From TrEMBL:
<feature type="binding site">
    <location>
        <position position="39"/>
    </location>
    <ligand>
        <name>NADPH</name>
    </ligand>
</feature>
<feature type="binding site">
    <location>
        <position position="124"/>
    </location>
    <ligand>
        <name>1-deoxy-D-xylulose 5-phosphate</name>
    </ligand>
</feature>
<dbReference type="Pfam" id="PF08436">
    <property type="entry name" value="DXP_redisom_C"/>
</dbReference>
<keyword id="KW-0560">Oxidoreductase</keyword>
<feature type="binding site">
    <location>
        <position position="216"/>
    </location>
    <ligand>
        <name>1-deoxy-D-xylulose 5-phosphate</name>
    </ligand>
</feature>
<comment type="pathway">
    <text>Isoprenoid biosynthesis; isopentenyl diphosphate biosynthesis via DXP pathway; isopentenyl diphosphate from 1-deoxy-D-xylulose 5-phosphate: step 1/6.</text>
</comment>
<keyword id="KW-0464">Manganese</keyword>
<protein>
    <recommendedName>
        <fullName>1-deoxy-D-xylulose 5-phosphate reductoisomerase</fullName>
        <ecNumber>1.1.1.267</ecNumber>
    </recommendedName>
</protein>
<feature type="binding site">
    <location>
        <position position="151"/>
    </location>
    <ligand>
        <name>1-deoxy-D-xylulose 5-phosphate</name>
    </ligand>
</feature>
<feature type="domain" description="DXP reductoisomerase C-terminal">
    <location>
        <begin position="260"/>
        <end position="376"/>
    </location>
</feature>
<dbReference type="InterPro" id="IPR013644">
    <property type="entry name" value="DXP_reductoisomerase_C"/>
</dbReference>
<feature type="binding site">
    <location>
        <position position="211"/>
    </location>
    <ligand>
        <name>1-deoxy-D-xylulose 5-phosphate</name>
    </ligand>
</feature>
<dbReference type="Pfam" id="PF02670">
    <property type="entry name" value="DXP_reductoisom"/>
</dbReference>
<feature type="binding site">
    <location>
        <position position="217"/>
    </location>
    <ligand>
        <name>1-deoxy-D-xylulose 5-phosphate</name>
    </ligand>
</feature>
<dbReference type="InterPro" id="IPR036291">
    <property type="entry name" value="NAD(P)-bd_dom_sf"/>
</dbReference>
<dbReference type="InterPro" id="IPR026877">
    <property type="entry name" value="DXPR_C"/>
</dbReference>
<feature type="binding site">
    <location>
        <position position="13"/>
    </location>
    <ligand>
        <name>NADPH</name>
    </ligand>
</feature>
Length: 385
């Protein structure tokens, strides 16, 4: 039987590549739901091509345009974030691929888990913000959370057949982004265009900036802590410029497993969508002779302070990772709009973490309030600069 999928964020980088996976395997998947935040033109194209049961545009101002364009199509059309959070419960859905950006992915993921849907998780912020709630809900509802991030997919693949063997250490690899090896004086002058020029990966603006600032790796460390039930000190980050070794797992006997491949997000997307099977693909193959040297370096956390801030948040626990994430989303938006400089993003995040209210055992409402409070504080800090 074909798998019936919902793709939340179908017009973004992960969403469009997921649809490439669908195209590559005719008959294996049915697209039940597509959602987008703002890109109504591409969403219309996707709706006409894949004939989903339901589509949702987050920006309610775009509803009429979407509805008019699809008037002759047999598709239900909705708008608004509440609608996105509700459509994941449709009974015909088997797998929900959450590829929304930032905090917005939290409530739809919670609802999908409560509805018993298998989760293909590309929205790392969901676990960063409320990992305790998400993992508990998944256990209660017997729902699998399959990672889509290349690093977490690598760890997941390394753990196949090893789930009862204790992990000694997880090693997350980082490309180092466009500013690997640079010093603070250089970073203070970085432009928006420079920061969006990633050497290995093609991603959306927000995650590309996170990669350049190393915040992405900090968020991934927090995500790994919840996905694989490990302690913060058992997660190590190393810079691997070639982006061939996607991550590694060290077991208590000292043995290390790694997953390798070319930097192509379609592979981890497909693995999450087809698990526990591996479908044949025509993706380009890795050749060792093309990469005679695979190198590894230590992260300079004095220069890339965001990684250290993420570990601080992870150690502090409670709602602090939620505060970190909210402040980062505001800071990245501020940098992209050229309101603050590249290095100033870390200053905004650190000051927000110091000012926001710490809740040691937060509820979902606490997380929602913490997100709003941290965003307001971060905005205030930016405005005062």
């Amino acid at each position: 039987m074909s798998k019936r999928i919902a793709i939340l964020g179908s017009t973004g980088s992960i969403g469009t590549q997921a649809l490439e996976v669908v195209d590559a395997h005719p008959g294996q998947f049915e697209v039940e739901v597509l959602t987008a935040n703002n890109n109504v033109e591409l969403l219309i194209e996707q709706a006409k091509k894949y004939h989903p049961n339901t589509i949702v545009i987050g920006n309610e101002d775009k509803y009429q345009q979407l509805s008019d364009a699809l008037r002759d199509c047999d598709v239900k059309v909705y708008a608004g974030n509440d609608a996105i959070a509700q459509v994941v419960q449709i009974s015909s859905i088997d797998v929900v691929l959450t590829a929304m950006v930032g905090f917005s992915g939290l409530l739809p993921t919670i609802n999908a888990i409560k509805a018993g849907k298998q989760i293909a998780l590309a929205n790392k912020e969901t676990l960063v913000v409320a990992g305790d709630i998400i993992t508990k809900l998944a256990l209660e509802n017997k729902v699998s959370i399959l990672p889509v991030d290349s690093e977490h997919s690598a760890i997941f693949q390394c753990l196949a057949g090893e789930f009862h063997n204790p992990i000694e250490k997880i090693i997350l690899t980082a490309s180092g982004g466009p500013f690997r090896g640079k010093k603070l004086d250089f970073l203070r002058k970085v432009t928006r265009c420079q920061a969006l020029n990633h050497p290995n990966w093609s991603m959306g603006d927000k995650i590309t900036i996170d990669s350049a600032s190393m915040m992405n790796k900090g968020l991934e460390a927090i995500e790994a802590r919840w996905l694989f039930n490990v302690k913060p000190d058992d997660i190590e980050v190393v810079v691997h410029p070639q982006s061939i070794v996607h991550s590694l797992v060290q077991f208590e006997d000292g043995s290390i497993k790694a997953q390798l491949g070319l930097p192509d997000m379609r592979l981890p997307i497909q693995y999450a969508m087809t698990f526990p099977q591996r479908y044949k693909s025509d993706f380009p193959r890795f050749n060792f002779m093309d990469y005679p040297e695979l190198t590894f370096e230590k992260v300079d956390v004095k220069v890339f302070k965001n990684l250290d801030l993420a570990y601080q948040a992870m150690h502090k626990g409670g709602n602090m990772p939620c505060i970190l994430n909210a402040a980062n989303e505001v800071a990245v938006d501020g940098f992209l709009k050229q309101r603050i400089g590249f290095v100033e993003m870390s200053d905004v995040i650190e000051k927000t973490m110091m000012k926001a209210s710490l809740v040691n055992h937060p509820s979902l409402d606490d997380y929602i309030q913490s997100n709003a409070e941290a965003r307001a504080i971060a905005e205030e800090i930016i405005n005062a600069r």
